[in-house]
Amino acid sequence: MRQVMINTDRTVVVVEAADPVPPGPGGAVVTVDATSICGSDLHFYDGDLPLIAPLSIGHEFVGTVAAIGAEVRTIKVGDRVMCSCLAGCGQCDGCLAGDPATCASGVEVFGSGVLQGGQATSVAVPGADFQLRALPDSIDDDAALLLTDNLCTGWTGAKRANVPPGGTVVVLGLGAVGMCAVRSAVAQGAGQVLAADPVAGRRAMAAASGATPIEGPTIPAVMDATGGRGAHAVIDAVALDTTLDDAFGAVRAGGTVSVIGVHDLNPYPVPMLTALFRSITLTMNTAAVHQSWKELIPLVESGAIRTDGIVTHRFPLDAAAAAYALAAERRGDCLKVALQP
Ligand SMILES: [Zn+2]
Ligand SMILES: [Zn+2]
Question: Which CATH number is 2-149+288-340 given?
């Protein structure tokens, strides 16, 4: 098989490796049909997260089951499947609640150093009954790629933002995850979704997804749009210190700051005193994947939540270096790059 690696000098290469076998009796091997580059992969590429050895990268992939272990029950060879970006044991209370990030055995992320990356021609998947989900024909590969991570992250972040019916929520950052948060907040019944991003093309796409784009400094723009009170909630899909400052500044007293962006390793000085006296709830999450699948799969199938337009560019897997270079430019016309083996 071939797999994408990021070297410690941040170069991206595609290398040959031994074909995977099912990791244990509960495991499976998936032949990858499509995989995508996530904003969190770019943290390794850009150098925000340290690399001590070449990394087999990628945690968003869909494909066809090529082999299963003797104890796998819910999927069979030949099934078209998607894989949760987060791997859990599948048996603890956290996994049974559908949130593998809270797995009692500790969550493992594909393509971050322990499990093989999904940007490859085939992937070994442990705990296949939990990690893999057979896909109906009505869900195409682009939608399924979003369901492996970004849409579940945005959906969970919007739920935890706890926007009252008809309330106002701000989404900071309109990359793939932010756009998924916009569509999730609209689908969950927010009255007004204010969408902020420095890139005009991304604001236009958020507008087409049901949001009201805001421009310029975020806090005054949110105050203008909310009669000076601030938003009921702010979803930060970037999590730079500057956007976190905007989130705490734009949320109204009693509101929620919901962080779904991936911060770097440096600490952020939470404005504790004002947040305490203003009764601000701070919540943070990655994707509660399986919980979200339960809610999102029917909505994606019925078209009640749209998945189109987010995968904007496609490259052959072997052109991964060019694909990373494009994704890292964060252009207005490029939300998400898919790789096809
Ligand atoms: Zn991702
Ligand atoms: Zn677990």
Answer: 3.90.180.10
The C-alpha atoms of residue 81 and residue 144 are separated, in whole angstroms, by 9
Is the overall model pTM greater than 0.85, yes or no? yes
Cα of 205 to ligand 2 centre, how many Å? Answer: 37
Class of domain 154-284: alpha beta
Q: Which residue has the tokens 């990394």?
A: 55
Q: Which two tokens stand for residue 11?
A: 């170069």
Domain ranges of the chain: 2-149+288-340, 154-284
**Torsions phi, psi of 231, nearest 5?**
-85, 155
pLDDT at res. 67: 98
CA–centroid distance, 91 to ligand 1, in Å, is 23
Taking the CA of 43 as reference, the closest ligand is 1
What are the tens digits of pLDDT across the range 49-95? Answer: 888 899 999 999 999 999 999 999 999 999 999 999 999 999 999 99
Which ligand has the shortest distance to the CA of 107? 2
